[in-house]
Description:
Blueprint: H1 3-23, H2 34-53, E1 60-61, E2 68-69, H3 81-88, H4 94-119, H5 124-133, H6 138-143, H7 153-169, H8 173-185, H9 190-203, H10 212-224, H11 226-239, H12 273-282, H13 288-299, H14 301-307, H15 322-337, H16 346-351, H17 353-357, H18 362-375, H19 380-387, H20 389-398, E3 421-425, E4 440-441, H21 452-461, H22 480-485, E5 490-492, E6 500-504, E7 507-510, E8 518-520, E9 524-525, H23 526-529, H24 536-543, E10 546-547, E11 562-563, E12 571-573, E13 577-580, E14 589-599, E15 606-610, E16 613-617, E17 630-636, H25 637-640, E18 645-648, E19 653-664, H26 667-672, E20 675-677, E21 680-682, E22 686-693, E23 697-704, E24 709-713, E25 716-718, E26 721-723, E27 727-732, E28 735-743, H27 748-770
Parallel strand pairs: 3-4, 3-5, 9-10
Antiparallel strand pairs: 1-2, 5-7, 6-7, 8-20, 8-23, 11-19, 12-19, 13-18, 14-17, 14-19, 15-16, 15-18, 21-22, 22-28, 23-27, 24-25, 24-28, 26-27
Helix pairs in contact: 1-4, 2-3, 4-5, 4-7, 5-19, 7-8, 7-9, 8-10, 10-27, 11-27, 12-13, 12-15, 13-14, 18-19, 18-20
Amino acid sequence: MTRNRTIACVLCLFLSPVVLFLAAPPAVFGNAVDWYSQHVVLGETIRDTMRASRSLFCDFIPQLYGGVNFYAISYYGYLRPDVLFAALFSSLEFAYILIAYAVFLMGLAAVACFFFLKANKFSWWICFALSLGLPCTTLFFQSHRQIMFVNFIPFLFFLLIGVDRLLQTGKKRLVIGSGTLLLFHSFYFAPACYWVALVYYAIKGGSFRASKPLWLSFLIIVLLGAPLWLPTGLYLLENKRPGAAIDWPALFVPDWKLSGLLYNRYGCGQPLLAWFALVYALFVPKTRPLAICLLTVFLFPVFWYVFSGFLYARTKALLPLMPFVIGLEAFFLQSVSHRVGVRNPWFLAGFFLPVLTIQNGVLWWDILALGVALCLFARKTRFVFALLAGPLLVWNAQNPPDSYLKKMPSLPDWIGKVQNESIALVDQSQLVNATFGLRANRSSGYASIYPKRYNEYIFDLLKVNIPINNRTAILDSTNPFYLFSRGIQWVQADTCPPGFETVAPSLYRATSVLPRFYLTRAWMDEKTWETLPFPDTLQAMIEQPCVSNAPGRAAAFQSRWKTESFPSLDCLVRAEKTETMDIALDPNRITVLQFDIENHDKEKPVVVDVNGMRNKLSPASSVYYNHNTRFTFMLAGGQTNGRPTIQFSAGNYAIKNTTWRSIDASMFQKRLGEIEPVQAKEGQNRWSLTIDAKEDAILVTPFSDQTGFSIRMDGTPIEPVRVNKTFVGCPVLKGSHQIDIVYEAPGKKAGIAMAGFGIFLAVCSQRRWKQ
């Protein structure tokens, strides 16, 4: 292949995603939920935190989840080139940097695929045709949906090219460079990609005895990536990300629809050519072992479960296998061009399986397109473009107009009023993670890894409603106990919550919420609190917060909840319906409505809305089943105009054990007179407080208890305590004190040291190779 032809192919491949991008209908190359609310907004937060910390290596984000370890969101782009570029040029809109980088990575993936196939001695036109079709597959859809599912693919191809180079020349640089970039782009997929590289090494004839350079390369990759994987891994272990409910028998039932291989946007998204190639390879002795392995993995969900790290059985875990699939496609086309056939009668029978199992209109057009392409084999140029028809059909089916974001959410015009204060954005799911340039503190947050203890506080202790299929997302709520205890000063919502006053349309400011830092002179020991029933626990958390490892110091607890004799909601629901309760809620009291849900059709969700406050029980098969079988609603008479309206979704479920209880709302204002607010000089991971305690007390902070906090009082280290089973606090003796609180992310310093050693080892190994 001539140099000019190679350059022309590379330019065409780089530009092909741009053509697809321009041909697509979106106003914004992104999705409203995952792409924007997580990848864009959290990428901005990573960038802003690095700038605020004036360091590449950060510790803490006080603006999300009420304060969280920085590595809770690190896998959304920490140390990725586009995020580092955005940190250098903060005036540029990160969403557009992400879009440009996503398109660039698609082009880079096509080029890397071309050189990977070329390194395996396939004809240039086969290399070009298959590489040209790669961006049309699931690569394009996930680039504007969940970019971390596919942004590692170009570096995976380069890693395999590096393995070839290592076998031929002993050079390790490409393996180390691509393997490290792969880890920085996708923390989740890296282990599977490294496994693919090891299998590829074995396929290409690499021996175990001669594998020392490869293992040394992987050791250097692990060391260089330690600033990301070590603190992120320690945070994962501490918080134990939940997996989905597993239907074990179903894991061993073959997926004859081939959703991990063909058409599906969450699998490899390949055209029918991939299946033909796998069937053909199955009958060729040279490729049979690989084909058997791939077919087994694609057919049986148990392997998806293993590849996903035992979280759930989803086809996205199979994306690292894409180079093997494309390699077999090239092998099939090369064999056909050389007229190397298979005489086994079962060979042709295997081709017809998709026709019997896949209910997809694209299939028939794909069969026609592949047939035309194979008929044009003799004319290489026509064949290349005919073969592209199948991937283009997949691209068109996978990317309908409604899969794109119509417009970018705009910055609220009132955001300047909430500078460095706490805000809740109710029913603003796109902005769940928005900190508006770290100007607003949020008690909410939505990332796949979340602070476990804080999550339990929100949903198990405060009983905040769960409006979606999972409880991974902590969304803002008008629950008055949530607003008060989290010290939320501003609320954007449709109705004014109790204890707030209207500042602008849909914007309200608090008249009575707890300060961020305060001293409490009365508290309950944790063991006594655990004996209280709900909702007495809510009252106790406000009036007499429980403290671990500290004897209680409060009067005997007296419940002030009143059981209301309102009508029961117990019934069997089959059809959608709306009811307005003919009851009068006292505007000066907070009413708690609770009932159990017994879902008789577990594959359908149950949704109940009470005056806009939603609770949902997700289907049993949901990826993150929320276990929300007891619905809780916090109602205030002023918000509901005294008469709640209840909407029930259609389904087949029973409502049981309805209870109505209420408490005087003045308890919040009264509590403010019993505490001592404390002013703090706040940084990103350091807080300095000057305290003049009138008597012995407990200091309460807004940060959930996480490994990494250290507290010094007057220069002396003291042991933190846990307040309300969740928050960091410490005992304070009567008098004046200087308290310094520092958070250091566990594993960060060790990760930096390991990366330094990795650089040293890489330099030494390179010099040794030269000698």
